[in-house]
Amino acid sequence: MRRILLYYLLLILSPWPLYAQKVLSIKIDATINPASADFIHRAIDVAQKEQASCLLIHLNTPGGLLKSTRAIVSDILQSPVPIVVYVSPGGAHAGSAGVFITMAAHIAAMAPGTNIGAAHPVSSHGEMDTIMSAKATNDAIAFIKSIAAKRARNAAWAAEAVKNSVSLTESEALEYNVINLIASSEQELLSNIDGRTITVSSGTVTLHTKNATTRSLEMGWGEKMLNILSDPNVAYILFLLGLYGLIFELYSPGAIFPGIIGGISIILALYTMHTLPVNYAGLALIVFGVILFLLEIKIVSHGLLGIGGVISLLLGSMMLIRTDETWAVADLSWSVILTAVGVSALFFLFVIGMGLKAQRAKPAMGLEAMIGEVGQSLSELNPAGTVRMHGEIWKAISASGFIPEGKKVIVTGMLNWTLQVEPYNESSV
Fold first, then answer.
1. In what order do the strands lie in the sheet with 213-216?
2. For 276-282, what is the mean pLDDT?
3. Beta strands in 321-364 (DSSP E)
4. How many whole angstroms separate alpha carbon 397 and alpha carbon 33?
5. Distance of alpha carbon 73 from alpha carbon 37, whole angstroms
6. Residue 244 and residue 160: Cα distance in Å, rounded?
7. pTM across the whole model
């Protein structure tokens, strides 16, 4: 009986339940954008609900948007679950925004052959002016120093990474107290952090990760779509397609398909643009350029409206993404801009122009098609009589007086099913 009681006591006190701990793992292998921020926020919620020992973020990013980076850092600092950021695999890089995310983690680790740094603010189109650069740099330095102080990491190096774009290898990062450890694999990392005490927003927890089971969490279809749409080039193309589709539907009511595609495209573009640093002056210039193309079709301006449309569309495309967005590594490609402007100009000036000319062309069928046709008088027109037209006999009346029988006549109009004709002068044709 004593042995049985001792056995149950050992079962109760033994640490084996700790080995059943769970680790939630996600991968961020792209630029930091609203989709990344939403994914990490959701992963923290899932890790908390599943009572995971920690959330492991495999990070490989060249940087991203300031707004999204601040959202991620805020979520990490307030997380009730320990966050482990692991810059991996070998060859991975935690650049710009990645530096802030790595330093904000409760535990920061790197795989061999990785590097971290180069966090100097840049605009989405290159260098900023001196004042804007100074403001962005000072703001970023204050931001990263506050993160480093929170996690007891090297604030001096962090400031240098922002100010002078310095970078470190994994060994140097460990030496300079930028990260906590180097691990060759995920399992090695989990073994090395086992037993560490972490302070989170809800209190102090001890990690039990050595024999923990790891569950991977993937982006949902909505997050994957947002990740694709967060590319400014995609948003730009969708916006133009949306405009063209709606315009085509207005010119050809009942076509339906262009209207549906245009509506969906422009809604997706506008949804994406509210997550990007969009310059609404650039957006207005793009719309104005399209309007000028339409006016060129309707108004004879000898190409002036078309040239204005090209200039407006080009300037609007260049200005579409605000240039004061820190770490905005994703920008509009010049090849996409030039191609879109060229195709747009050709589309409006030639395709729609030819379509409108066809609409204005002389009707090929019906009574209106008789105007300008040449026939022959079957009787004297003085002024009324009959003529042969298209193998048919028509009543006719001469608008210019007497026309002898057998003469060629040309139709100038029609009144109450009676042709109005004049003598046909071949020498004037």
1. 181-182, 107-110, 83-87, 54-59, 22-28, 213-216
2. 78
3. none
4. 77
5. 9
6. 48
7. 0.66
